[in-house]
Design the sequence.
């Protein structure tokens, strides 16, 4: 969990450090917003019981791998397109976690 | 028998659909297009019908050619408490749509899922709570269900009203931020499959016609909130730190003697725990 948070935070730092006057400033802001959303999903779900299951741990491992790839892409100084592509995979993993939590919400009539 | 199940994609609705289809009935599962349909999609004998219960025309079409209706669609807490207008539209106007459509079809029976929540907060009373207990609206949900009951009783449609206890399932469910009952409060749940069985029996058994019946788990499910939560998660093999409501809420122990003829109380709480232990091992929690 901490590794994923660190990878996402580090990616945000790298993006923020890029010069503000670059022509793609708007695209950068959009990426930062999407990154923050993925981070928020992680924080909202970090105490969920189902994450302790075998399947939950596998999902978190996939999430961690995607976040690591994203951080490495950002660190490699590749263009925003590369970051965008890697971020899509992070968002897919975040959505899987969010969907599973929703499915497992308590039932009360 | 061809059945319409409103709320047919939900936890209880999908269980009713599955049970009915496995008994040889033809089922039309009706629910909002955007809900998760995975529990019924592809089930043999179950037809999917996405639609909105508040749409009079859609509901009128849905009830055509059916021989029985199970009406489960509705907004539940906590969502029901966020928007009274929407809750009344879905839970009351939606029920009115069903009832008006059925009055045009003579003799098609309706089973309506009401709730034990309509008895209000009864913690300071002597349990168990029977069907003759006064109903007291204490929130949007109970108010809407009481109004829906009134509509059905006055409709002339052959019906059964089931006041169903909170549903329990043999699956890993997440704890809400605040458990909706006190740790020391009396609670009684009912296993989802048993509730589905009660619904189907009500539809098929003429003795249930015109009745208002409590549907709850029975003696083995009567315990305190803490006993339920610890028994449930303990069986799964999970340590939890629940935060319970500080106030008493509308869950209690119920008199189900009048509904026993439906033959639905099959799984004891110990039986549920057995299933949860197996699940906990499968999930890698034990």
Sequence:
């Amino acid at each position: 969990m901490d590794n994923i948070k660190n990878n996402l935070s580090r990616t945000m730092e790298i993006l923020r450090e890029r010069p503000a006057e670059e022509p793609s400033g708007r695209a950068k802001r959009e990426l930062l917003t999407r990154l923050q959303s993925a981070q928020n999903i992680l924080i909202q779900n970090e105490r969920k019981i189902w994450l302790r299951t075998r399947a939950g741990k596998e999902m978190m491992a996939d999430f961690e791998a995607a976040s690591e790839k994203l951080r490495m892409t950002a660190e490699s100084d590749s263009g925003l397109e590369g970051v965008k592509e890697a971020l899509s995979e992070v968002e897919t993993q975040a959505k899987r976690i969010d969907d599973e939590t929703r499915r497992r919400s308590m039932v009360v009539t | 028998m061809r059945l319409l199940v409103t709320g047919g994609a939900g936890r209880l609705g999908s269980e009713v659909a599955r049970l009915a289809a496995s008994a040889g009935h033809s089922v039309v599962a009706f629910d909002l297009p955007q809900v998760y349909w995975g529990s019924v999609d592809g089930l043999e004998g179950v037809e999917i019908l996405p639609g909105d219960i508040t749409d009079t025309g859609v509901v009128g079409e849905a009830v055509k050619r059916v021989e029985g209706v199970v009406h489960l669609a509705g907004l539940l807490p906590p969502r029901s408490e966020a928007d009274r207008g929407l809750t009344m539209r879905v839970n009351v106007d939606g029920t009115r749509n069903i009832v008006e459509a059925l009055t045009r079809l003579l003799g098609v029976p309706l089973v309506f899922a009401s709730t034990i929540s309509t008895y209000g907060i009864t913690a300071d009373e002597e349990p168990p709570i029977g069907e003759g207990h006064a109903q007291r609206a204490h929130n949007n949900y109970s108010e809407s269900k009481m109004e829906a009951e009134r509509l059905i009783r006055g409709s002339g449609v052959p019906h059964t009203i089931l006041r169903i206890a909170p549903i329990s399932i043999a699956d890993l469910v997440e704890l809400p931020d605040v458990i909706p009952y006190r740790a020391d409060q009396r609670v009684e749940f009912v296993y989802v499959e048993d509730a589905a069985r009660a619904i189907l029996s009500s539809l098929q058994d003429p003795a249930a016609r015109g009745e208002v019946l409590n549907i709850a788990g029975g003696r083995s499910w009567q315990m305190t909130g803490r006993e339920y939560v610890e028994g449930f998660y303990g069986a799964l093999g999970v340590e939890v730190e629940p935060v319970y409501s500080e106030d008493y809420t509308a869950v209690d122990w119920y008199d189900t003697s009048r509904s026993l003829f439906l033959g639905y109380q099959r799984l004891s709480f110990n039986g549920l725990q057995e299933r949860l232990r197996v699940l906990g091992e499968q999930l890698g929690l034990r």
Observations:
- The two ends of chain B are 43 Å apart (CA to CA).
- The longest helix of chain B spans residues 84-103.
